[in-house]
Design goal:
This protein is of the alpha/beta class. The chain is built from 9 helices and 6 strands; from the N terminus they run H-H-E-H-E-E-H-E-H-H-E-E-H-H-H. The protein has a 4-stranded mixed β-sheet.
């Protein structure tokens, strides 16, 4: 599956013909998610797999994923850098740090108990793909996350398998600051569609409102009823807390609106 590449990949891939290999081109680059969903339209067998074509993951490793699927009666097998039997020949410290932080975010937002969602090597039963793909909206950065979140919600069995990764790029690799921001926004969108972002936002906002009302009550009581109550707390301290609470409430209002916007 070639997603409108401009480096001659499609020409190279179609330079030789094989009876059991079909090469397709989407015409223009629309992101990883769109490319995979488009490619799945041409699947005719019971299993679907995808992996990055940069050869950092040897395609022969598909045997390992097949074994894990069979041995664990799994619906989805995820190639994982964090599997105890995985071999990572080189992995930049910065990428490792970002990956770990992202995994923490996923566990908090989506309750995804998967150690690595982004390795780019997955094996899935066609039935699961056909059920989940039509519901997915992410076309680029958080495609894997959205797929696995839906799979977990619908009770599909997901297992992780070891991989051998030969990371050839230095520093950030293909990842840059813009990519990190887009991944975050895509992930926020997924969390929003699952109703989780609104829950956390509303919980935080409502808690802040209650605390702010309580502080306001303390200030008014101290000012107009009994100025000697709460002797260890000065009025200006209460005013500062009140202002801080109001600022948080104001800031979270557009954030909640943003969460609802993603759900549309």
């Amino acid at each position: 599956m070639d997603d409108g590449s401009t480096d001659g990949t499609f020409k190279e891939a179609t330079s030789e013909k094989f009876d059991n290999v079909k090469v397709v081109n989407s015409g223009q680059n629309r992101g990883k998610g769109f490319a995979i969903k488009y490619g799945v339209n041409f699947v005719t067998k019971d299993l679907v797999t995808f992996l990055d074509a940069d050869m950092e993951l040897d395609p022969k490793q598909i045997r390992i994923l097949l074994e894990y699927m069979k041995d664990n009666d799994a619906d989805i097998v995820v190639g994982s850098k964090r599997h105890p039997f995985s071999t990572i020949e080189y992995y930049p410290l910065l990428r490792k740090f970002l990956s770990q932080m992202y995994n923490i975010v996923l566990r908090l937002l989506l309750q995804l108990n998967i150690r690595d969602t982004q390795a780019g090597f997955k094996l899935m039963k066609r039935e699961a793909v056909q059920k989940i793909f039509p519901m997915m909206r992410v076309k680029r950065y958080a495609f894997d996350v959205e797929f696995l979140a839906y799979a977990a919600r619908y009770g599909y069995k997901i297992v992780e398998a070891p991989i051998i990764l030969k990371f050839t790029r230095r520093g950030w690799g293909r990842i840059n600051l813009k990519t990190v921001i887009n991944i975050f926004l895509d992930t926020v969108a997924v969390a929003s569609r699952f109703g989780i972002l609104q829950y956390y936002t509303k919980l935080f906002r409502d808690t802040t409102i209650m605390l702010t009302v309580f502080v306001a009550g303390m200030y008014l009581y101290k000012q107009f009823v009994n100025p000697y109550i709460f002797p260890g707390i000065e009025s200006r301290g209460l005013i500062a807390l009140l202002a801080f609470g109001l600022i948080i409430i104001i800031v979270t209002l557009p954030y909640e609106s943003l969460a609802k916007k993603f759900e549309k």
